[in-house]
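haha ok so turns out i had the wrong file open the whole time. this is the CORRECT one, sorry everyone. sequence first:
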Amino acid sequence: MLAIAVPVTINVQRAQAEAAENAAAEKAVAKAEAKAEQEEKDRRNRFNTALAACGMYIGNTTGVEILDDGEAVEFSGVAETFASDVQTSDLYCFLGKLRAPQSLEAKIGQTRALDGRQSEDWDGFTIEWTYHPDDGANVIIEQE
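then structure:
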C-alpha cells in the first residue's frame, strides 16, 4: 500500500506545482497586458496632459485641436499678439512639455512666410509648421 501512496502524493504535488506555475504565468501576462494598455492610454493622452500643464484645455482654448484620437495636435494662428487665441509662449510651453529641443523653438521663431512648410523630428514626434505675418504660425505635431 505504501508503494501506491507515494506516487499519488508525488503526482498531486507535481500537479499543484504546475497549477501554481500556470497561475503565476497567467498573472504575469495579465499584468503585462494591463501595463501595455495603460502605456497606450498615456501615449494617446500625452497631448492633453501637456496642454493642461501649460494652462490650455480643449474646448476652452480656441486654436488648439486634438486630432486622430490623440495621435496629433494642431495649433492655428499662433502669434505673439494678445489678439491671438494661442500665444507663441503657449506653443513653446507645450513643446517644452514634450521635451522638444530648444533649437526647434528658435527655428519656428525664425520662420518667414517665404520659407513655406517646415518640418522637424525628435524623440517620437514629427512637427510641421508654416508662418504668415497676418495669420501667425500653424503647427501640426504628430506622434510616431
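Residues 46-143 form one domain.
again sry for the mixup
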